[in-house]
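Reposting from the mailing list since nobody answered there.

I have sequence plus structure tokens for a pair of proteins and want to know whether others read the tokens the same way I do. The first protein:
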Amino acid sequence: MQCRVREDGTLMKLNLLIGFEGSGPDKSWQDKPHLHSVRYSPDRRFLFAFDLGTDSLYRLHATGATDEGQPVLSESGFGYAKK
């Protein structure tokens, strides 16, 4: 999900929603996606999302004001690796 933040802390209109699908091998707790953490690459060109629910690592290309917490995420830069 990508929303911009106004100076007063309220969110602007949602402009991107990326949904993850799938499940992991242990159906007792991996029946659907659930993100564990999201981190930037050291060069801040990519945003990585670690999904425990699917045992997957997702990569999104990030451009724009990444230091301000408001990157522009590119779906064309979307990729994933499965464990």
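The second protein, same order (residues first, tokens after):
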Amino acid sequence: MRSLVVLLGVLGLDVGRTPRWEERRPQMERRADAVLPRFPEGTRFYSNTDWKGDRPDFYEQGARGLDPFSHYGWDAGLIMVNDEEVAVIWNFLSI
């Protein structure tokens, strides 16, 4: 899920189009890693993004498509739910 959390933080949902991606990647991954430990095994993840495979690497494949919830054509997000809390990470600026 870390690569999806990071992907939601880049313009266009495409790390390949992100200026200075390799330079920015470690900081963005640290930010994702600050949130994700709160959602251990057993957490349910929901996203409106489409991907291929069981454990996708969004740096390699990006978001293959999505089903927007708003009037924005490319709003993309992730909802994480466990017995303790719920988190919503969303990007409305991906166009």
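Reply #1 (J.P.):
I read it the same way you do. The helical segments are 2-7, 21-35, 58-61.
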